[in-house]
Design a protein that fits this description.
The chain is of the alpha+beta class and about 230 residues long. The chain folds into three domains: about 5-70, no CATH class; about 85-135, no CATH class; about 135-225, Immunoglobulin-like (Sandwich). The protein has helices at about 20-30, 85-105, 105-115, 125-135, and strands at about 5, 35-40, 50-55, 60-65, 65-70, 135-140, 155-160, 165-170, 180-185, 185, 195, 210-215, 220-225. The N and C termini lie far apart (about 60 Å).
Length: about 230
Amino acid sequence: MKLRLMPNEGSDLKGILHQRSLTLVLNNFYKRLKNQYMAKIKDNLLVRGASGNVGKQFVYRKRGNNTFITRMPATDKKAKTTQQQEKVREQFLAASGYATSAIADPKIKAQYQKKAKVKSGITAYNVAFRDYLKAPVVKKTDAAKYTGTPGSPIVVTAVDDFRVIEVAVSIKTAAGVLVEEGNAILNPLHRDEWIYTATQNNAALTGSIIIATAKDLPGNKGTMQTTL
């Protein structure tokens, strides 16, 4: 049996195996674990496929083909949640709802499944959950070839933990008057680059503002504003 330390995680698993015999084994495991880690169990018939908790001290969790064991998290039922904790809780509930809906759609699930690592216990649900919590980032807006004339390009570099599905560009004068707006086209060779081609004349080029907004599959947005 081999142990590999991994970051600690919570568990919502069910069932309890034979507690007395397992507690002896688990106590030996626990001596080898640090406070904030959990162990990965391999080739142990006694606990293979186990789930739930043992004596309210240890928790099993099965992810993919692997079984993990960790200390049961301690909770203070009398403690009052802070505003930040409530905010985080709401975000996680929303992420869970999105992930559940996403994997219920065969087409969307298939997209997330491509990035899942089943052998490591990372499922399509896990990928969708994380995607909801992380907005895309516009890393760069290259307007070096934008001349204020139709046909001149603006190149936007945008990334996401899963995938950017859309990049919109708007151009305004220094006074804030909208010149034009529209969607950029994904560069087929460089998948993090999106090219917007101007369609309107912009005589007041100096001081003009370019706003690039990237959107991911859950609808999160990331924006960059560039002044010429």
